[in-house]
Amino acid sequence: MSGIVQRNWFEQYMVPCFAPAPFIPVKAKGSRVWDQDGKEYVDFAGGIAVNSLGHANNELKEALRDQMENFWHIGNGYTNEPVLKLAKDLVENTFADKVFFCNSGAEANEAALKIARKYALDKFGSHKNEIISFENSFHGRTLFTVTVGGQPKYSQDFAPLPQQIHHLPYNDIDAIKAHISDKTCAVIVEPIIGEGGVIPADPAFLKALRELCDQHQALLIFDEIQTGIGRTGYLYAYQESGVEPDVLTSAKGLGGGFPVGAMLVKQHVAEVFQPGTHGTTFGGNPLAAAVAHKVLSIVNQPEFLAGVETRHQEFINRMTALNQQYQLFSAIRGKGLLLGAELDKKYQGKAKTLTNIAAEEGLIALIAGPNVLRFAPALNIEQHDIEEGFARLERAFKRFAS
After folding, report:
1. Those residues with Cβ within 8 angstroms of residue 98's Cβ, 6 or more apart along the chain or in another chain
2. What is the pTM assigned to this prediction?
3. For residues 233, 239, 240 and 242, what is the CA-based torsion angle, rounded to 10 degrees?
4. 150-159 per-position pLDDT tens digit
């Protein structure tokens, strides 16, 4: 057998639940990626909003290297210094009183949904178990989280599904007023719907959710897996809205590329999880915590967050200018460096085609459903990478529109 790794090994050896690009990335630095053939790409995808500080960031590498020299894993029968430092910083810089660490966004949401049901059971009784979510939302791939997500295509083949989960229209205050009741234990919402099209929440909608949850003694959960850790120009998006959740979930950018997730929670909710109620083998391990702590220390600075907003405006200006020329999009939206451009009616369903052409031109981008081009680059992406990325994107637009 040849020693050279081949792309067709994916079809030969791996479960086909992905459809990866035809090239294999092998090296990356900052916002540049190189494949097996040495072709260079500008990365506007950021590992799906994961590589918050770009690829192979020197400070993250140093933090990981230092921790590797001490110990990697000890299990949840013990605590460790990196995880305690990370928990302290998250609590001191957010609404939360306590933190639970895990390995991914799905696990963080799983913990949030479980703690909501447990809190309602303990405080009010078994009748209070309904979870309200929103259409086109996405919360993970476990059976519980994929059911709570508002995209049936991801859950319908796995029935019977968890019960007492209801999906309402996003940004529709009247719909939530008409449905929420004293049987509702939690409402879970993304401040910006990510996978479902990059759709920001109306501030009045979030405010109404807070008021209605208080009225009906339900918990408000913010899924900030994609919007957290500086992605919108704030450490967490809730801080711009002025609406505090009871529970917040975080992952993706928190580890800057190293797998880590977290559930942030207020004290009165946290206390219903006692030893044995919930757990994790790898969650909060020293390696992940050391890297995440370094990410947090870099991102949570006024100058850094201001830089995200500056880059946001540049992306919007450049996309608007290109759209005036090529007229591909009906809307360009988003906050910070989570941006979506919705294809005009004549190009509907062709977002993946556009990203494939962009990759051929040396630009890595994302989709958010079949009709939306999505960008989630490194929060510290350099100016020359922005300029080169848009030059390549324009070549792709030209080909796509011809």
Report:
1. 87, 91, 264, 265, 266, 267, 270
2. 0.97
3. 180
4. 999 999 999 9
